Every structure is written in C-alpha cells, then in structure tokens.
Amino acid sequence: MALFAAIATACGTDRAAANTSVGSQFQIGWIQQDIQLAALKRAIKTKRRETWQWQDSSLTPRTPTDYKERTTKSPAFLEWIRDYWAEKLRKAKKKALNPPHKPEWECIHGHEAAWDNPGLTWQGYPSRYYGGLQMDRQFMATYGAFFVRKYGGRVVDGRAYGGEAHLWTPHEQMWVAEMAHRVRGFNPWPNTAPKCGLPT
User: Fold this and answer.
1) pLDDT at 160 (0 to 100)
2) What is the pTM (predicted TM-score) of this model?
C-alpha cells in the first residue's frame, strides 16, 4: 500500500508540475504579445505624429484617423496600420521638403537675406522684413497665419517674437511663399525675382 501511495503521490506531483509549466508558457506568451502590441502602437503614434508635423509644414490638411489601434489586439492589423502611416510619413516629408517652386525661392532667397534674419538690413539696421524671403507682418498674417500662431511667443536671445518668419524653417517659409504665389505670382519680390529671371 505504501508503494502505491508513493507512486500516486509522484504522479500527482508530475501532473502539477506539468500544469504549472504549461500555465507559465501561456503567461509568457501573453506577456510577449502585450509587449509586441505596445511596441506597434507606439510606432503608429510616432509615425502619425511625424506625418502631421510634415503636413503642417507644407500647409497640407492632416490625414484623418479613427485611432483603430486603440481597440484592436491583432498584431497583423497593427502592422498594417503602422505601414500605412509609414507610407503617409514618407510622402508628407517628401512634399514638405520640395515646394513646387523650390529652386526659384532659393534663388530669391540668395538675393534677399538669411533664412533666420530677425528683421534687420544688411547693415544691421531694424527692418520690417523677416526671414529668407523678407516677409512683412501683413504678408505673414495673410499667407502664413498658421506659422505665426505656431511660433508666436518664442524668445530668442532674450527677445520675444510674435511668430515672425525668421523663426520658421526654410521650407516653411517657402510654402508660405507658395501660398502667395498662387494669388500674386512673384510680384511680392519686384527687386529680386527679376534677378532670377522670374516675371513680376
């Protein structure tokens, strides 16, 4: 009887150990999946945010989203959403960095001022024109109001600015110029556009 009892105890112990092992494997599997899902969701969030930043830079409406990644638990679907935003990001960045008249703006800029010109003449005197394409406040408010709001209140070298063009990136300045060009052509640059062979 003692022998049978010992065998039964041993078998029970083996079954318990096996059950514990299987349970641990399942738990590890769920943890690994949760880590994978969290990483995919972070990637989606990052790519979507960067896409919108580049779209903002080119004054392009943001790609809408329904945030489906917040409710799904499918790794395959999350990978699809990640890849979708990765492609949107690639296209948004390419567009933002390549305004339609980029060579023309770069030429005009070469005859105007530095991209970060804070409203000064070549001699260092105060001027009402800012940035590499020398935009005044009315021009900025008309065609670049988004960036005026975005950069408003920035403090540079102890001086507070109201979001003027010299605080914008070069491609943001060019996109604002593009907005003006659609209405006025190169007329806002009567002195420098002709130097680039452009009509005014």
Assistant:
1) 74
2) 0.82
